[in-house]
From TrEMBL:
Its main location: membrane. It is a multi-pass membrane protein. This is Major facilitator superfamily (MFS) profile domain-containing protein. Keywords: Membrane, Transmembrane, Transmembrane helix.
């Protein structure tokens, strides 16, 4: 009986590089034989159905909506810590040092992400829906109990540690799900989703400042806690995945990815970006106050920062889809470095600080939507969850230490130049971030040339060895056949 073969040829694909010829053979497990009723054998490639990304659909957009709302409630709400921080410092609420408060803010931002691989594994054995709901529940408990704290160690545990784990559990699963639903407009929708941080930052900073003035800090935290649990519960019910088609891996640690050159460069990019980003974000209010303005006027700086986030992330997503997330990242963070040196350091009036807050908010938060768009370009969609979880470890650890570094670098005397060293640190961090993005871009361009511009979502060539010479040659490459 004659066998009919309906699929791509299974012959090896050959790629040539400076070190010789390397053969790549597709995994036979991705093909399955099916026996039709007429007795003929048909071999069907599951790759086509697995990676036929729909670019939308109802459930795809529900995932984007959930990403937007969890960004709104988690990261947007977390920016309000600068308001609490300013209040604690002004009234010496817990008889603690500024470093204590900064450490708590850092713990809330990043301690849970140090355990992000465990979160990834938890998603694998339960579901993204459960993990998001559980994270919302932890945030509710953290915020509600923090309203009754009397000692600084209690605030460390509630607002710091517990809040950090809640943020991580809510924030880890959804950004890794959205790329399963979008291909052509992937960066755009990811940055649209992460743009919820901006709206949340605007609303929470304005509302919490008003609530504190009228009813005090305790009630501000209680109200925030109830808003968090309601939003997270709704979002946990709206999430849908395409795991049955993509077959993602939920390894806590994937050493094959962890020690690869492009992933290590991406981790360096994350370290420098987060050190600069969090230091800048947490310093804006007090930096404005140091110029001689009130805490209320200082709070407007962080509000404008969040206005920039709200408008900027979807806008930069459009450019990211057109030119590629890595290319746009390099441009954005080189420009962010320039803003720190040219605006923040010489700033001596309210208008300059407001303009700086708006501009830096517009571009610096690009990292949060860019990571889930860049990772598939390096390792493919199947390993996205594992790679994303490991990346969050570095992102979280950087977030923990950033506020402490910011306070340590500021001068003791309250004066216009109090935050000069902080601004210099942020500027250098953004510059190194741009450089790392440039190296990662050169690597991807070189890999594309070696593999014949294959679809990176499939991850077929994620472990190809790219000669360092080719990476250096492509550092300043401007035009490329495929967006990077």
């Amino acid at each position: 009986m004659t066998a009919e073969i309906v699929s791509k040829d299974l012959s090896s694909e050959k790629s040539h590089n400076d070190e010789g010829i390397r053969e790549y053979t597709r995994d036979p497990e991705t093909f399955m034989g099916e026996k039709p009723s007429d007795g003929t054998m048909t071999r069907v490639s599951t790759r086509a159905s697995d990676f036929a990304i729909p670019d939308g659909t109802f459930w795809g957009w529900m995932c984007v909506f959930s990403y937007f709302m969890t960004s709104f409630i988690c990261w947007g709400g977390n920016t309000a810590f600068s308001i609490y921080l300013s209040n604690y410092l002004e009234h010496n609420t817990f008889n603690a040092s500024a470093v204590d408060y900064a450490t708590i803010g850092g713990l809330a931002f990043g301690v849970g992400f140090v355990f992000a691989p465990v979160n990834t594994y938890l998603v694998g054995i339960t579901s993204a829906n459960f993990v998001v709901f559980f994270g919302g529940l932890l945030q509710f408990v953290a915020l509600f109990t923090s309203s009754y704290c009397k000692e600084i160690w209690q605030l460390y545990l509630s607002q710091g540690v517990l809040m950090g784990f809640g943020l991580a559990l809510v924030s880890t699963p959804i950004p890794a799900i959205v790329p399963q639903w979008f291909d052509k407009y992937r960066s755009r929708v990811l940055l649209l989703g992460s743009g919820g941080t901006g709206l949340g930052g605007i609303m929470f900073n304005l509302a919490i400042q008003k609530i504190i003035e009228e009813w005090g800090v305790a009630w501000a935290r209680r109200i925030q806690s109830f808003v968090v649990i309601v939003v997270c519960t709704v979002c946990s019910l709206l999430i849908r995945t395409r795991d049955e088609k993509i077959k993602p891996e939920f390894k806590a640690i994937d050493t094959q990815i962890l020690f690869s050159f492009p992933f290590m460069v991406m981790l360096l990019w994350l370290v420098f970006t987060m050190l600069a980003y969090v230091t800048t974000q947490y310093s804006m209010t007090n930096s404005t106050v140091a110029l001689g303005y009130s805490a209320s006027q200082g709070s407007i700086t962080i509000v404008l920062f969040n206005v920039g986030v709200l408008i900027g992330r979807p806008s930069t997503g459009v450019f990211s889809d057109k030119f590629g997330p890595v290319t746009v990242s390099a441009c954005i963070y080189f420009f962010s470095s320039l803003l720190c040196f040219a605006m923040w350091i010489p700033a001596r009036n309210l208008a300059t600080m407001y303009a700086f807050g708006l501009l830096v908010g517009f571009i610096t938060g690009f990292v949060f939507g860019a990571v889930p768009a860049i990772v598939p370009r390096i390792v493919g969609l199947r390993k996205l969850q594992a790679a994303y979880g490991m990346a969050w470890v570095i992102l979280g650890a950087s977030g923990v230490v950033s506020p402490v570094i910011g306070l340590a670098l500021r001068k003791d005397k309250v004066e216009p130049g109090q935050y000069t060293w902080v601004a210099m640190f942020a500027g250098l961090g953004f510059f190194m971030s741009g450089f790392c993005a440039l190296v990662l871009r050169a690597y991807i361009i070189a890999k594309d040339k070696l593999t014949g511009f294959k679809n990176s979502d499939r991850g077929e060539h994620s472990q190809i060895k790219v000669p360092m010479g080719m990476i250096i040659e492509n550092l300043l490459t401007v035009k490329h056949k495929k967006k990077v």
